[in-house]
Amino acid sequence: MWGGQTVTESPPDETLVSCVKGLKPALVLELGCGAGANAVWLAEQGWTVEAIDFSEQAVDLGRQLAAKRGVAVAFGVGDATNFKTDSQYDLIISFYIHLWPRGRATMLDIVCGFLAPGGKLLFISHDRSNPPPGFSEDEFDSLTTPDEIVLELTGVEIEVATVIDHD
C-alpha cells in the first residue's frame, strides 16, 4: 500500500523468476524498483542487488521489506534517465518504468553501457496493444512496442523481444 506506507509482501514478478532461472547469481541493478519486491527476492536468491527508484517513499518501503526479510539490498533514490555508476552489472532489470520515448531511449542507452560482458538486460513495459486500465491519451506515448525497444537498444544482442499475454 503506497498511501499508508506499509511494507507489503508482494511476490516477485513471474517473468523475472522465469528469466533468471538457471542464471548464476551475481551483481544486479534494478531501475524503478518500486517497493522492492523484485530486489528483495533477488537478494534472497543470492544476488548482490542495487536498486533505485525516483520515489523516496518506495525506496523506504523497499528498505523496510529487505530488513524484514533479513537480506541486504543497496537501495537508493535516483533518476533512471540520469543514473551514474562505475559498476558493471551481470543483470539489469527495468520493469514498468513508463517514460516518454526520449527518456526511455536515454535510459536504455545508459544502462547498456553498464552491462558486464555477457550481461543481460531485462526490460518489461506495458505494450501499446494492451494499455493498462486508467491510462490517459497523454500517457499512451509512454507505452512502447518490442520493435521500438529493439531500435532504442544499441550495442547489445537481442535474445527476445515480444509481447507477453498475461491473461
Please provide a written account of the structure.
The chain has 167 residues and is of the alpha/beta class. The protein has a single domain (25-152), classed as Vaccinia Virus protein VP39 (Rossmann fold, 3-Layer(aba) Sandwich). 31% of the residues lie in helices and 20% in strands. It is built from 6 helices and 5 strands, in the order αβαβαββαβαα. A 5-stranded parallel beta sheet has the order 3-2-1-4-5, covered by helices on one side. Helix 2 (37-44) runs parallel beside helix 3 (56-69). The longest helix is centred in the middle third of the chain and has 14 residues, at 56-69. The model has no long low-confidence stretch (mean pLDDT 89).
- Proportion of β residues? 15-25%
What's the average pLDDT? 89
Oligomer: single chain
What is the radius of gyration computed over CA atoms, rounded to a whole number of angstroms? 15 Å
Structural class: alpha/beta
Uncertain parts: none
As for the number of domains, it is 1
Briefly note the CATH topology name.
Rossmann fold
The helicity comes to 25-40%
Lateral strand order in the biggest sheet: 3-2-1-4-5
Kindly, what is the distance between the CA atoms of the first and last residues, rounded to a whole number of angstroms? 24 Å
Give the biggest sheet: 5 strands, parallel
Q: Categorize the overall geometry.
A: globular
The CATH architecture classification is 3-Layer(aba) Sandwich
Highest CATH level, the class: Alpha Beta
- Taken in chain order, the helices and strands follow as HEHEHEEHEHH
